[in-house]
């Protein structure tokens, strides 16, 4: 009989997307033929020829990278039963939640996430939950304190009745069907919980409406001293599972790190590093789960699933992190703003398995602590510890301080973390609650002249710290895996309107552009293997031009067939994923729109930053609980932001072209044929830009501001003039 410790805890199943592969390859072939055609059509060499050639080459290149990413998709299957055989030896897990703004991220949302984490199906004495509050908000703190009282009822209730959805606001929402239970007292208790939760949310609601939300006495006094971005560290142990009960409520710790105006705080990456150090001093678990404040646990067994991969005898040597997909609840119908990321992760995300594994998405991810500290997979711990200065008596202290900072306690904990052996029996539960030592590692100058943000922890210098941090792990040789059990592991809020969606895309694409002009070339050379998501912003350049190039030549059959194939391919991918055709169309449409708005701007953002004209800022995405009477649903909102100028310009140009063509005002002396193909191209772009077209005539927040329209008109005129002069020459 095989030793129970050697049985694999997960397996990887390679999927065959034969249809998808065939369509994708055919498109690639067509693109190559088109390029060939261009090259050999000597007599047409001209400025438009050159632009068209450039764009088509770019498309071909990005398409090649897309197929190579999608080529070998896989999924992982975990063997929970095998892991549960070793239940007594499960390792500790530290859970990090980040929140940053009590207005954009209402505390009730954070509270629900925290409650769902505290109620995870995992021994409570092996869990600790750390909440980082970058807003230093007494309201968030108050909400967590109140939530803990409720947790003492909620956690046992969930475990007793094996409740599926452990975020109360979802559990009690009308849609969630409350599971029938064989226990007669269930209904009664469920009602009681509902009442208790109602009280909790109204307490938080009331506190948020008061001008001075919380008393400035007692434990809240410390918050009264704070000023905007200028306050000391506040760390509070809200709840300690003192007796180490495995069926109790896990530890809950609140952390608001020190901030001073003259010190950069590095946004989320900075917060994650503080969480890493404080938890290192307190529980020092070998595994870390991190979630954004809106990502509640939707599958209470998720920690067990992820650990199957991390503890597997092969996974242990190879896998740095386990990423669960990001899904969203109460989404806008048919994905009107194209931000729910359902088909994309399935086809592209799954494909990463054929490479070194999925990229780190910043949330819903389980990490190994020692990897966060910079360990490589092939490094045996001894040499690593020597490199870090742990073993060499003479240099040790100086060296470790240069890497991990001046806290002796933390250095010692890092020393232990590097030795992470699987299944450390839980002999020393809560190491110490030395708040003073913990406060020291949360100060804003702790990281000066250390490796934090450079070689250790979450890396700085980018607004998508996640992608960068994950890629650097891959460059060291680690792999990563997707864990996507049923039901979906986590669910979060997605932007409820196009403005939120655009801000988010701008941040993501500016991050990708960053790597193109990047200072740290290393990881990005690797990212050539991960080209798909990174070609996102660069698509913003050729895209607009290519929208404008129309050809009436025989060669136009190549792009036409490629276009048809592409649409057939993506539509079938959506339908197979169980999505509606309308969703597909919305995704296509938003793809065209975001390229010309957020991606375009993300690109310039980074140019400005590179030229040291501006600084990267992490704009937090607004998280609201969607209300049923949201009048904006599915409609486009506009504001004064220049982000709408390029899109409006494209729309105006295409409209002009369309009108000229249809009314037959086209001058014959150009090249005569203003064919069906051209009209079709213009019509297609206008169709994609329909929301902007509505914006041209809309009023108030539904209308594009006049100033934006004027700017776009000027640009459009300029462009049309330019084309005329080159064509008539
Ligand atoms: O100074 C800051 C700014 C943000 N956050 C937190 O970072 C998280 C993500 O911010 P959010 O505004 O929700 O960004 P999204 O665009 O929704 O986030 C996606 O993209 C980010 C990178 O761009 C990743 O970090 C996230 O995990 C990923 O969900 C939230 O919990 C914030 O509270 C901080 O802790 N401190
Ligand atoms: Mn988010």
TrEMBL record:
Gene3D superfamilies on file: Spore Coat Polysaccharide Biosynthesis Protein SpsA, Chain A
Membrane topology label: Multi-pass membrane protein
Gene Ontology process terms (BP): cell wall organization; cellulose biosynthetic process
Any coiled-coil regions, as ranges: none
Keywords: Cell wall biogenesis/degradation, Glycosyltransferase, Membrane, Transferase, Transmembrane, Transmembrane helix
Residues bound to UDP-alpha-D-glucose: 105, 134
Matching Pfam families: Cellulose_synt
Active site: 134, 466
Main location: membrane
One term of GO molecular function: cellulose synthase (UDP-forming) activity
Compartments (UniProt record): Endomembrane system
Domain of life, per lineage: Eukaryota
Spans traversing the lipid bilayer: 21-40, 46-65, 643-665, 672-692, 704-723
Residues that bind Mn(2+): 268, 292
GO cellular component: endomembrane system; membrane
Name by which UniProt lists this protein: Cellulose synthase-like protein H1
Upper taxonomic lineage: Eukaryota, Viridiplantae, Streptophyta, Embryophyta, Tracheophyta
């Amino acid at each position: 009989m095989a030793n129970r410790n050697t049985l694999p805890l997960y397996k990887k199943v390679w999927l065959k997307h034969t249809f998808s592969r065939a369509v994708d390859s055919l498109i690639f072939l067509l693109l190559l033929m088109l390029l060939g055609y261009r090259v050999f059509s000597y007599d047409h060499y001209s400025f438009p020829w050159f632009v068209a050639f450039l764009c088509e080459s770019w498309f071909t290149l990005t398409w090649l990278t897309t197929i190579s990413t999608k080529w070998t998709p896989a999924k992982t299957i975990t063997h929970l039963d095998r892991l549960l055989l070793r239940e007594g030896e499960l390792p500790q897990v530290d859970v990090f939640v980040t929140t940053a703004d009590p207005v954009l991220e209402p505390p009730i949302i954070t509270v629900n996430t925290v409650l769902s984490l505290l109620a995870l199906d995992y021994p409570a004495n092996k869990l600790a939950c750390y909440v980082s509050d970058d807003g230093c908000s007494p309201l968030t703190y108050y909400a967590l304190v109140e939530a803990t009282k409720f947790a003492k009822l909620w956690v046992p209730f969930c475990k007793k009745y094996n409740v599926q959805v452990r975020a109360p606001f979802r559990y009690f929402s009308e849609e969630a069907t409350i599971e029938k239970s064989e226990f007669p007292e269930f209904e009664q208790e469920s009602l009681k919980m509902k009442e208790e939760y109602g009280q909790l949310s109204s307490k938080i609601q009331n506190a948020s409406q008061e001008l001075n939300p919380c008393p400035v006495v007692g434990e809240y006094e410390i918050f009264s001293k704070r000023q905007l971005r200028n306050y000391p560290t506040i760390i509070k142990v809200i709840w300690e599972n003192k007796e180490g009960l495995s069926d109790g409520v896990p530890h809950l710790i609140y952390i608001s790190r020190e901030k001073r105006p003259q010190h950069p705080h590095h946004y989320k990456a900075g917060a994650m590093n503080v969480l890493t150090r404080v938890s290192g001093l307190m529980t020092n678990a070998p595994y870390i789960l991190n979630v954004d404040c809106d990502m509640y646990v939707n599958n209470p067994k998720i920690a067990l699933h992820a650990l199957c991969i991390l503890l597997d005898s092969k996974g242990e040597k190879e896998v740095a992190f386990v990423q669960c997909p990001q899904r969203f609840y109460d989404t806008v119908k048919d994905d009107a703003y194209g931000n729910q990321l359902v088909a994309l992760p399935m086809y592209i995300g799954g494909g990463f398995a054929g490479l070194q594994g999925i990229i780190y998405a910043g949330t819903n991810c389980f990490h190994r602590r020692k990897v966060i500290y910079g360990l490589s997979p092939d490094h045996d711990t001894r040499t690593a510890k020597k490199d870090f200065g742990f073993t060499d008596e003479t240099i040790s202290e100086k060296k470790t301080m240069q890497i991990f900072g001046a806290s002796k306690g933390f250095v010692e904990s890092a020393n232990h973390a590097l030795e992470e052996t699987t299944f450390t029996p839980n002999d020393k539960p809560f190491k110490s609650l030395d708040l003073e030592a913990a406060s020291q590692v949360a100060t804003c100058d702790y990281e000066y002249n250390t490796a934090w943000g450079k070689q250790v922890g979450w890396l700085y210098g980018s607004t998508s710290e996640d992608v960068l941090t994950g890629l650097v792990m891959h460059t060291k040789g680690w792999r990563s895996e997707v864990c996507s059990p049923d039901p979906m592991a986590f669910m979060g809020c997605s932007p409820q309107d196009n403005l939120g969606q655009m801000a988010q895309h701008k941040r993501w694409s500016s991050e990708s552009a960053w790597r193109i002009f990047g200072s740290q070339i290393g990881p990005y050379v690797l990212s050539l293997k991960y080209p798909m998501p990174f070609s996102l912003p660069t698509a913003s350049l050729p895209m607009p031009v290519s929208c404008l190039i129309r050809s009436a030549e025989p060669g136009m059959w190549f792009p036409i067939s490629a276009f048809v194939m592409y649409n057939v391919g993506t539509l079938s991918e959506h339908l197979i994923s169980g999505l509606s055709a309308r969703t597909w169309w919305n995704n296509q449409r938003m793809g065209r729109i975001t390229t010309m708005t957020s991606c375009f701007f993300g690109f310039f953002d980074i140019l400005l930053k590179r030229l040291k004209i501006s600084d990267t800022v992490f704009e937090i995405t607004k998280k609201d609980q969607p209300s049923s009477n949201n009048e904006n649903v599915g409609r486009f909102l506009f504001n004064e932001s220049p982000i709408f100028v390029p899109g409006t310009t494209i729309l105006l140009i295409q409209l002009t072209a369309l009108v000229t063509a249809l009314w037959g005002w086209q001058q014959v002396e150009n090249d005569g044929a203003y064919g069906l193909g051209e009209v079709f191209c213009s019509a297609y772009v206008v169709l994609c830009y329909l929301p902007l077209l509505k914006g041209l005539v809309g009023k108030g927040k539904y209308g594009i501001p006049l100033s934006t329209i004027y700017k776009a008109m000027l640009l459009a005129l300029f462009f049309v003039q330019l084309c005329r002069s080159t064509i008539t020459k």
